[in-house]
Automatic annotation (TrEMBL), chains A, B:
This is Nicotinate phosphoribosyltransferase. Belongs to the NAPRTase family. Keywords: Glycosyltransferase, Ligase, Phosphoprotein, Pyridine nucleotide biosynthesis, Transferase. Its EC number is 6.3.4.21. Pathway: Cofactor biosynthesis; NAD(+) biosynthesis; nicotinate D-ribonucleotide from nicotinate: step 1/1. GO terms for biological process: NAD+ biosynthetic process via the salvage pathway. Catalyzes the first step in the biosynthesis of NAD from nicotinic acid, the ATP-dependent synthesis of beta-nicotinate D-ribonucleotide from nicotinate and 5-phospho-D-ribose 1-phosphate. It comes from the Bacteria. One of its GO terms (molecular function) is nicotinate phosphoribosyltransferase activity.
Length: 442, 442
């Protein structure tokens, strides 16, 4: 896999170091004990949705496929592990030829999920599967958290476009993944050039307060911007006095001015005033973009305001109060012996202290009511009931180590919109509530 | 700068794409208007601390220095910007030879900060400075948020070591930065191998529930682990029944067993029971590590429990409720003209809608009381009062584009411990409160 496939601006020589130390010590102990080759099934799921949330959004699956394909222990990495004494020589030898050769099934990216949904299933030897835990969870926990917030925001925004502009509020590379997840969740564009470069997401942006402050007058700044970016540009009108700025903006750009941006103040009030002023100035087509500390609630509260687009930063990239999706990666079944034909035994943690899980390899289906609306997430370990065979959710993602399900991001985005539309209407209520459909185990 | 300096496992060919689209359109408009070369001063600060927090922690400065040094527009990046029409040809030409040639001063990494503290000051032409906004904020907002949470946790833990183990709960590369920030904030070790590789932070880890479940019995699992990792290892004792596991653990490893780990349940209660049981079994030196959903409050509540070390994941990497530090990067002064000798004019946003700031290039000093304890963060734009000249906080980080203040992470970690110790005692109270010292403007 070349650099281009992995995606600049960041070339990841290997994803194998995005791994917790204990994955390698477990490998070493299992190799010595002769249990490393036991066929194993790991599943990714979450025990609960974030408090008050009605559905989750699977995001990051495409990045997981890249990460698994690229999970290699090269000379530098092996040298580090040797020097630090993380594992012994036989383990280092085993790692040197590591390639994931197992199978991965999962919910397709963009699909919604509920407590217990087996979002990803990784099958192979214990050794080859256990190593992938950390990087798979990092990606799914981050990206799904962002996509869930994005989905709520896009449903609150209705037909009005959302601009992702949170890069400055999160780690510089998390920002790139966040822009991707936001796009999956329904955002239209991003401010992040790296996300445009890597994922071909449309990028947008015009100017900040600093640009106005750089110039001797606001008029100078607007003239400078319009003369280069054209009258279709977006002028930022809240550096000094909004009403004066709007007047100057239309004088400078003419009534065909593309948009004005408001980044502070009481947006509901200011948007109404600015709309009225623009209309009076003949700039009836000039759009209003608002961008100040928005979340899904603020977006919803502006539904009746004359706003044409929303820019969202902090609350998007921090998952609007829930920056991680609390997914776990659990061994749910393993063979009785290292014999490839040995039958699988379901396993599960049993301690009374919580964190218990359901053993066994699971299927999942979404049962619909008579109107075609989702009514339950059905999860089972045995035979799939006849009536659910065409409602199964998991698809094959990796077969014998080969990725078989790469897809364009627009397909994922459309899938999410369709999946959300298939939920009961209460799914998109912003008020706190339970998961919009129950999880049933059969 | 070679790959080794930037740090594997991620080679960043350029940090220039970690940039919002509008930085480049502002550049283009300023170049055309003849204002791009006006000497400018940008400052990074936060208007407020996260609600209830008493101090902030500067973290990420070292990463900022790397990012600025590596901020280049290579052929691939320029090709992307051209193809997408982000900026015009004259701007692309300007970008092709971009190197930051200005000066950066700032609080040294690990120092504490308060509302308004000018944490970083970037000086140069408007053009060269404005481009750095996004990547500088991404790094400082993320890393400082994590370090602040880490600092609270380490002060709650006292002398007991903290293990950072949150990689799986955040973006895979944010995790590496989080481990670094946690170390600055007082953590002792990390589970993240990439953080060990990149920043030389000690890594630790032994086994998870999956390892126990892989084996036919818990005893088999413990024997496998002890035979390879030695009796000094840490055995996870809450897969089935804790009391039985502890008995088995000491039988298998002997009374010199290194540690047991508890990852679920009522940790206060279980820790007491396990300590008593270990002591009765003669394993008086065996340590108890707890790792279940800890935050600074849970750590503090376990102060009286027989716990020897804490592992912290989710709450650490998500900033314990505050995943971003809300720092901004504001133009505070700029020259009247492009003439290098032109005097600087203080500038600031003035709109009534909030988000106002104080114009002018600032100094900052921490005033001490008669006992040597911090009593105020003093910020000014004019001459430094005589009595504060030896309490100034900002240091030179980049001079004429050259990094002049690289330092080992242990120095940063020690600086943070010393800075925190210099605050009033109430700084480390976990209860919600105001900033522990006031910010005064002179």
């Amino acid at each position: 896999m070349g650099v281009a496939d992995l995606g600049l601006p960041v070339d990841v020589p290997s994803t194998a170091l995005f791994t917790d130390h204990y994955e390698l010590t477990m490998l070493q102990a299992a190799l010595a004990a002769g249990t490393a080759e036991r066929r194993s099934v790991f599943e990714v799921f979450t025990r609960r949705l974030p408090e008050g949330r009605r559905y989750g959004v699977v995001a990051g699956t495409g990045r997981v496929l890249d990460a698994v394909e690229n999970f290699r222990f090269d000379t530098d990495v092996l040298g580090f592990l040797r020097e630090r004494g993380v594992v012994n020589e036989p383990t280092l030898e085993w790692l040197a030829s590591y390639r994931f050769g197992g199978d991965v099934w999962g919910y397709p990216e963009g699909e919604v999920y509920f407590p217990g949904s087996p979002i990803l299933r990784v099958e192979g030897s214990f050794a080859e599967c256990v190593l992938l835990e950390t990087v798979i969870l990092s990606i799914l926990n981050h990206d799904s958290a962002i996509a869930a917030a994005a989905s709520r925001m896009s449903s609150a925004a209705g037909d009005r476009p959302l601009i992702e502009m949170g890069a400055r509020r999160t780690h510089e590379l998390a920002a790139v993944a966040a822009a991707r997840a936001a796009y999956v969740g329904g955002f239209a564009t991003t401010s992040d050039l790296a996300a445009g470069f890597r994922y071909n997401i449309p990028t947008v942006g015009t100017s900040a307060h600093a640009f106005t402050l750089l110039h001797d007058t606001e008029r100078d700044a607007f003239q400078a911007q319009v003369s280069v970016l054209g009258q279709g540009t977006t002028l930022l009108v809240d550096t000094y006095d909004v009403a004066e700025a709007v007047r100057t903006a239309v004088e400078v750009a003419g009534p065909k001015l593309g948009a004005v941006r408001i980044d502070s103040g009481d947006l509901l009030l200011v948007a109404h005033r600015v709309r009225q002023q623009l209309d009076e100035l003949g700039a009836t087509e000039t759009r209003i973009v608002v961008t100040s500390d928005l979340d899904e609630y603020a977006i919803a509260s502006l539904r009746a305001a004359p706003v044409d687009a929303y820019g969202v930063g902090t609350q998007l990239v921090t998952g609007s109060g829930h920056p991680t999706a609390s997914m776990v990666y659990k061994l749910v079944a393993r063979a009785e012996s290292a014999d490839p034909q040995a039958p699988l035994v379901p396993v599960a943690k049993k301690s009374s202290g919580g964190k218990t899980s359901v053993g066994g390899r699971k299927w999942a289906a979404r049962r619909l009511d008579e109107y075609g609306v989702a009514e339950a997430e059905v999860i089972g370990t045995g035979k799939v009931p006849q009536e659910l065979t065409d409602r199964l959710l998991q698809v094959e993602l990796i077969k014998g180590g080969q990725v078989v399900a790469r897809e364009p991001l627009d397909v994922v985005r459309d899938r999410h919109a369709a999946a959300r539309a298939g939920l009961p209407l209460s799914a998109t209520q912003l008020s706190r509530g339970e998961a919009v459909i129950p999880t049933e185990y059969v």
